[in-house]
């Protein structure tokens, strides 16, 4: 019997950074030297069950301290809340956090504050799933459609998606859900890998990793492009030779181009049969994406990892600007807003291929796609979740890839819990790794 008196007693925050820039892991045309980082939090409670809620948002190094400060600014909305009530209806907290007018002014509903809200909201869902004894994808898939609709903020959406339409989509999604859940547990969810394609890698490393990806069962890889056209032509030729003609090869410009440049550059790479061009221009430029989509056909257009909220996603869909919608588990305001985005995509019939990689993004976003398959869209056709093979060892329930598929998590929660030893080592600037690194006398010694 849950303790009705249990309360949230604290939010502990951590600035966690990993020195990925030193091997150029994660490097692309816009972000040449990322240190993959997490503004991380733990919700602690007075409940006797000992469960905690873990959440985070992803950054690439400097500025992670600003992101942690934004999470700290939300503490007053959370500490002291009833655990039972919070887990029964996370949407109440989501609305309270989004609705704090003085903090909302910093957005509204975008940027550092919105990502902080997502970290807190995701931690609540992690806690709720642990208390239910279910992985998050299963918690969502088992939930009543009307309850899921109650978790969504339809403000600014009803010209494209109404609550009644959402209820209809979710009710339809229940049909055959048990069979799809069994299939998911047996087969997993399709993945593609970006691991071969970081811009800083040599052609030899690109070739080796691309060949390994095919051998491991991946049917799609992705390459970073956008810094130098001649280099991109050479690298795309190298990758295509490594994987052969039957493996999909996406390319990703990470917002590097103006609209006309995006069309010209993508078409210059068309001979290598790119499956999609990702983030060809500013993530805020809805009409620009639509123009790029028209200009590069039959190459498809994908975007979303930097799209700041459900309203911009709505416009991308309304403008027929994307072929693939790439939601991010930690960019918007958590599970609640991502439910809205999944529903929008289902309404418009656009496949969701989430952004992952980073620190823990693979761990989180797999749950959203698996819920979508089991209880909303009912299909994995033209749907893949990004996979990047680094930093998973820092999580208690890391992703598992089998023959190019994400294996469905079975442990309760949102797969968000980091190992305490990793927090102790990589907390910035006083964790064991960083304290020793910052004390080193030269950059060569630090490397």
UniProtKB/TrEMBL annotation:
UniProt keyword annotation of Metal-binding present: yes
Gene Ontology molecular function terms on file: L-fuconate dehydratase activity; magnesium ion binding
Cofactor: Mg(2+)
Substrates-to-products reaction catalysed: L-fuconate = 2-dehydro-3-deoxy-L-fuconate + H2O
Enzyme class of the recorded protein, top EC level: lyase
InterPro entries: Enolase-like_C_sf (IPR036849), Enolase-like_N (IPR029017), Enolase_C-like (IPR029065), L-fuconate_dehydratase (IPR034610), Mandelate_racemase_C (IPR013342), Mandelate_racemase_N_dom (IPR013341), RHMD-like (IPR046945)
Protein name as annotated: L-fuconate dehydratase
Keywords: Lyase, Magnesium, Metal-binding
EC number: 4.2.1.68
GO BP term, pick one: carbohydrate catabolic process
Chain ranges of the Mandelate racemase/muconate lactonizing enzyme C-terminal domain: 203-299
Pfam family, one: MR_MLE_C
Annotated organism of origin: Streptomyces vietnamensis
């Amino acid at each position: 019997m849950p303790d009705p008196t249990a309360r949230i007693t604290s939010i502990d925050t951590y600035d966690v950074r990993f020195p990925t820039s030193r091997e150029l892991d994660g490097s692309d045309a816009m972000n040449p030297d990322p240190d993959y980082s997490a503004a991380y939090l733990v919700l602690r409670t007075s409940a006797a069950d000992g469960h905690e809620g873990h959440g985070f948002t992803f950054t690439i190094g400097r500025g992670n301290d600003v992101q942690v400060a934004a999470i700290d600014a939300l503490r007053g909305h959370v500490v002291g809340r009833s655990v039972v009530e919070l887990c029964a209806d996370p949407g109440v907290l989501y609305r309270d956090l989004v609705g704090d007018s003085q903090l909302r002014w910093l957005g509204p509903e975008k940027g550092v504050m919105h990502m902080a809200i997502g970290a807190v909201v995701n931690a609540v869902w992690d806690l709720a799933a642990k208390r239910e004894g279910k992985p998050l994808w299963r918690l969502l898939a088992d939930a009543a459609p009307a309850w899921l609709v109650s978790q969504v903020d339809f403000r600014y959406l009803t010209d494209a998606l109404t609550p009644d339409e959402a209820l209809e989509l979710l009710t339809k999604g229940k049909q055959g859900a048990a069979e799809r859940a069994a299939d998911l547990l047996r087969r997993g969810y399709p993945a593609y890998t970006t691991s071969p394609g970081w811009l800083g890698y040599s052609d030899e490393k690109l070739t080796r990793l691309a060949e390994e990806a095919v051998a491991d069962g991946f049917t799609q890889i992705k390459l970073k492009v956008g810094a130098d056209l001649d280099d991109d032509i050479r690298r795309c030729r190298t990758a295509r030779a490594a994987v052969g003609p039957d493996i999909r090869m996406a390319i990703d410009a990470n917002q590097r181009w103006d609209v006309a440049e995006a069309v010209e550059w993508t078409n210059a790479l068309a001979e290598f049969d790119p499956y999609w061009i990702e983030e060809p221009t500013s993530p805020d430029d809805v009409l620009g994406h639509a123009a790029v989509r028209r200009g590069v056909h039959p190459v498809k257009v994908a975007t979303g990892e930097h799209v700041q909220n459900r309203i911009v996603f709505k416009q991308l869909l309304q403008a027929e600007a994307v072929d693939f919608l790439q939601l991010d588990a930690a960019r918007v305001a958590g599970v609640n807003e991502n439910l809205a985005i999944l529903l929008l995509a289902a309404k418009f019939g656009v496949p969701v291929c989430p952004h992952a990689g980073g620190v823990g993004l693979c761990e989180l976003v797999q749950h959203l796609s698996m819920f979508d398959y089991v209880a909303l869209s009912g299909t994995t056709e033209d749907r893949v979740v990004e996979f990047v093979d680094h930093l998973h060892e820092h999580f208690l329930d890391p992703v598992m890839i089998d023959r190019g598929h994400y294996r469905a998590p079975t442990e309760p929660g949102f797969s968000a819990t980091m190992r305490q030893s990793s927090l102790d080592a990589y907390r910035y600037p006083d964790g064991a790794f960083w304290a020793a690194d910052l004390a080193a006398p030269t950059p060569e010694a630090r490397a």
